Amino acid sequence: MRRCNWANSSELMREYHDNEWGTPIYDDQLLFEFLILEGAQAGLSWNTILQKRENFRKAFDNFDFKKIAKYNEQKVEELLNDAGIIRNRLKIEAVIVNAKVLLELQDEFSSFSNYIWEFIDFKPIINKFKILEELPSKTELSVLISQDLKKQGFKFVGPTIIYSFMQAVGMTNDHIIDCFRFKEINQIIKSGVNIK
């Protein structure tokens, strides 16, 4: 069974690749989780984030943005002392800011999902890359989305982070064409499951 090469670096990466990466997501809480994890990953490896993912879920109330939006300075200090997560003050404070902004966007667009998927007219982009080296680190679209997210007030949402987010949540199918997941995800897209 052929996979994208990056998935073979560990069992955790393989499971993530085979079951999650590139699958279209429309649930606000899961979208928020990926937005936060991608931001946390800045300067680190994705494998490191996956190893700490369960710790992140415990530390951040399972990414319940309504709860996170109410975190205070005492909670920030508590998180800074949690060895199970990435202990970076700017990244931790960004999670709280992003939770508050997401709630505002829900009021305006009825869901964060509606807001983010509208950038691609609710249709995942199907790329046809033959080798890993062809994958971009950012695109004109990720720059545009990044700029809009920043304008809304989000933090740690640069164009490269946003392109990784788009790949993770299935806004773009960036599995290489001979990877078994490329066809599987295209089938999900064609079936229209969970599309707005």
What does this structure look like?
Strands 1-2 form a two-stranded parallel ribbon. The protein has ten helices and two strands. It is mainly alpha-helical and 196 residues long. Helix 2 (28-41) packs across helix 9 (159-168) and helix 8 packs across helix 9 (159-168). Helix content is 57%, strand content 2%. The longest helix is centred in the middle third of the chain and has 21 residues, at 89-109. The model has no long low-confidence stretch (mean pLDDT 96). The protein has one domain (5-191): Hypothetical protein, domain 2 (Endonuclease III, domain 1), CATH 1.10.340.30.
Topology:
Blueprint: H1 11-19, H2 28-41, H3 46-59, H4 65-68, H5 73-80, H6 89-109, H7 112-117, E1 125-126, H8 140-152, H9 159-168, E2 172-173, H10 180-191
Parallel strand pairs: 1-2
Helix pairs in contact: 2-3, 2-6, 2-9, 8-9
Structural class by sheet pairing and helices: mainly alpha
Please tell me the CATH architecture by its name.
Orthogonal Bundle
Q: What separation lies between the terminal Cα atoms?
A: 32 Å
Strand content: under 5%
In which range does the helix fraction lie?
55-70%
Radius of gyration, in angstroms, nearest whole number:
16 Å
CATH topology label? Endonuclease III, domain 1
Strand order of the largest sheet: 1-2
Give the helix tally: 10
Secondary structure: number of strands: 2
Q: Domains counted in the coordinates: how many?
A: 1
Major β-sheet, in short? 2 strands, parallel
Which CATH class is shown? Mainly Alpha
Mean pLDDT across all amino acids: 96
